Amino acid sequence: MIVSEIWRYPVTSAQGEPVCRSVVTGVGLEGDRGLAIVDIGAGRALTGRRRQPEYDFPVNPEDESGEWDVWSGPAGVWHDSARTQVSILSTTSLAAWPIRRFRPNVLVDGSDEDQLVGRRIAIGSVVLDVMKKIDRCVMVNRPQPEGIERDRSVLRTVMREREGFLGVGALVARPGEMEAGDDLRELGPSPAVVR
User: Fold this and answer.
1) How high does pLDDT run on average in the chain?
2) C-alpha distances in angstroms, 187 versus 22, 97, 118, 191?
3) How far is CA 71 from CA 81, 103, 192, in A?
4) Radius of gyration (Cα) for the chain, nearest Å?
5) Who's near 195: CB < 8 A, 6+ residues apart?
6) Partners of 95 in the beta sheet?
């Protein structure tokens, strides 16, 4: 697999930006999801969802006015999972959807990123432990910049065809730098993943 694009999202739930290269720190891409807009009166960060640092997902993705499951997210960063500091998505999995719908950090040419779960990989001088498949939520249906309209069929398709997962999440094992055009190299089983 070859890295075709690198993205960072400076303010959580706000428009992202493609970058040619990125420094990757111990908590993810430099400048990625480190900021949030805060409602001072409510004492909560605002996101495309309803609350922070709690996360929520509609029990029925077809009906956002119904019941929602709520869980606590990691502290100090604005990723949805304590097991995701860098997200990776393949061009094959992305299919014809705009990349902004899924907000990955790394888009790789190729397919079947799911097979990376449980593996240690390297991109440039960065080493990552791929921890999990990313479970998708109602956010993928929401409108995005550049004329991307609301589309409820996106999550329906991901649920039906991929059991709700699209892309993989990784933790940083060794900080470094990566850039578009780098190879994604498998290094072996990840010592961070308990089997």
Assistant:
1) 85
2) 21, 30, 11, 11
3) 10, 21, 23
4) 16
5) 118
6) none
Is residue 78 pLDDT above 70, yes or no? no
CA-nearest of 61, 62, 154, 52 to 101 is 154
Position 167 scores a pLDDT of: 96
As for how many domains the chain has, the answer is 1
The answer to whether residue 158 is domain-embedded is yes
Query: Would residue 194 count as lying in a domain?
Result: no
Cβ within 8 Å of residue 151, ≥6 positions away? 141
Per the structure block, which two tokens stand in for 9?
Answer: 């999202």
Residue 50 is part of which domain span? 2-189
| Chain segment 5-32, per-residue pLDDT in tens | 999 998 877 788 999 999 999 999 999 9
Amino acid at 143: P
Query: Which candidate, 54, 58, 83, places its Cα nearest to that of 68?
Result: 58
**Under a CB-based contact definition with an 8 Å cutoff, are residues 105 and 8 in contact?**
yes
Residue 91 sits in a domain whose CATH number is: 2.40.33.20
Q: Is residue 68 situated within a structural domain?
A: yes
Would you say 55 and 70 are in contact if contact means Cβ atoms under 8 Å apart?
yes
Total H helices, total E strands in the chain: 2, 15
Measured torsion, CA atoms of residues 145, 151, 153, 158, in degrees rounded to the nearest 10: 30
Q: Where are the strands (E) in 91-157, listed by range?
A: 106-109, 119-123, 126-135
